[in-house]
Design brief:
The complex is a heterodimer. Chain A has no helices and twelve strands. By secondary structure, chain A is mainly beta. In chain A, the strands form three sheets. In chain A, strands 2, 5, 6, 7, 10, 11 and 12 form a seven-stranded mixed β-sheet that branches. In chain A, strands 3-9-8 form a three-stranded antiparallel β-sheet, with no helix packed on it. The chains are: A mainly beta, B mainly beta.
């Protein structure tokens, strides 16, 4: 079974702090994604990566950056956390195929609270 | 802009009931529509639909797509408490991103 692991389930940070959310997958997937999930808004894509050192902006990249130095690891960085970044963050990966989204495998999520 | 709207927002039923969850969409370039179940944190894949009128079935769950009217439904028969979850519909527009709906929260009471 594919495993997508997010380093923290719950995280509490202060406004202005730099925050790193880590995601590791063990199935050699090319594609990795970061989503945030807010009530009533569904999942919104922040960034995705289809290869090492490659990244593409999603719907809501402002205030975030990402890093993909190794195939199995995709990090989401909040350079200066703000209260409106309080949210559930979900990492996902998918194998190569005719599309990037054929089947996403999700991590268990990180609930980030910015105070 | 692609759009996915799910209804109802939430639903409370009793065990044994049958439920129908709705997903309507607007898309410029349709590739597929996907359904996910999210129980605690991680959404898990249920179905991928690409063609109109062909029902996908897995146990008590089934789903069908209508590409003319731009909607899909997810049916759950003989519901059980373990079906309680948020059900997410997502649209693959052949680009690089999935567009998710807001989800339907289903609660099944014993």
């Amino acid at each position: 079974d594919v495993k997508v692991t997010q380093s923290s389930r719950y995280l509490v940070k202060r406004t202005g702090e730099k925050v790193f959310l880590e995601c590791v997958q063990d199935m050699d997937h090319e594609n990795m994604f970061w989503y945030r999930q807010d009530p009533g808004l569904g999942l919104r894509l922040i960034y995705f990566s289809y290869d090492v050192k490659m990244k593409e902006k999603g719907d809501i990249p402002e205030g975030y950056s990402v890093s993909r130095e190794k195939k199995e690891r995709f990090s989401l960085i909040l350079e200066s956390a703000s209260t409106n970044q309080t949210s559930m963050y979900l990492c996902a990966s998918s194998p190569p195929g005719r599309g990037l989204n054929e089947k996403l495998f999700f991590g268990s999520g990180t609930q980030l609270s910015v105070l | 802009e692609d759009k996915v709207v799910q209804s109802p927002l939430s639903l409370v039923v009793h065990e044994g009931d049958t439920v129908t969850l709705n997903c309507s969409y607007e898309v410029t370039n349709f590739r597929s529509l996907l359904w996910y179940k999210q129980e605690k944190k991680a959404p898990t894949f249920l179905f991928m639909l690409t063609s109109s009128g062909i029902e996908k079935k897995s146990g008590r769950l089934s789903s069908i797509l209508d590409k003319k009217e731009l909607f899909s439904i997810l049916n759950i028969t003989a519901t059980q408490t373990g079906d309680s979850a948020v059900y997410l519909c997502a649209l693959d527009n052949a680009g690089n991103m999935l567009t998710f709906g807001g989800g339907t929260r289903l609660m099944v009471k014993p």
